[in-house]
């Protein structure tokens, strides 16, 4: 919901989405570092107190904000059908799923994997700090990158390739600090992937169904992929260990990358046919 609000607010104010989203990355980086060290010092049983204080602060700030006001096209039956009968969009969601499964698996399993390798709670928090800090500058300059590489599918393919290499590297490493440092690869994976995916949805989905398209994306990335990644990741980790699940994750990311390449080739072919006519 926050990403949807940020998208609407950026359009209303005429600023880039990345300039808003970067503050989420900074906040996550600070929270990861501070909470990781607090948990190591006072214990996880007091975490609810810290979360309660944060949520009270968020609720107070929310009362000071105004809802963004934008003109929306009316919801129509035709627009609804176009959104869910759009084969390109469905193919895109399948590619998203293959990329998202290992990403969400990492969200669930990384702490357990690092713990099994001997990392402390503070170092586990440091891992998330590295990922968030590396993400922030890339999100902030994504609008410049999209000017140099205008094809969103090329950017998605690049992110998928980086994801493949990232998970394969995690599968090979056994030193927890090396894995923690490698979390900086979050910058060229998730940051590029997230912004490009949201922009691509806005490109191929009718404007009156944009919220529905974004919801389908979030349901795939945050919902279905989380269920599959957490369940399969936990089961396979118990059987074969953490290194194995990351190698499987690399294969999944590679499949998603290939699907983006196929989608790009189809789009190029369609453009050539349109130009020929």
UniProtKB/TrEMBL annotation:
Any one annotated GO CC term: plasma membrane
Domain of life: Bacteria
Membrane topology (UniProt): Multi-pass membrane protein
Location relative to the cell: Cell inner membrane
Regions that span the bilayer: 20-40, 46-66, 87-105, 125-145, 152-173, 185-205, 217-237, 243-265
Transmembrane is among the record's keywords: yes
Domain (Major facilitator superfamily associated): residue spans on this chain: 11-246
Assigned keywords, A-Z: Cell inner membrane, Cell membrane, Membrane, Transmembrane, Transmembrane helix, Transport
Classification via InterPro entries: MFS_assoc_dom (IPR024989), MFS_trans_sf (IPR036259)
Protein name: Major facilitator superfamily associated domain-containing protein
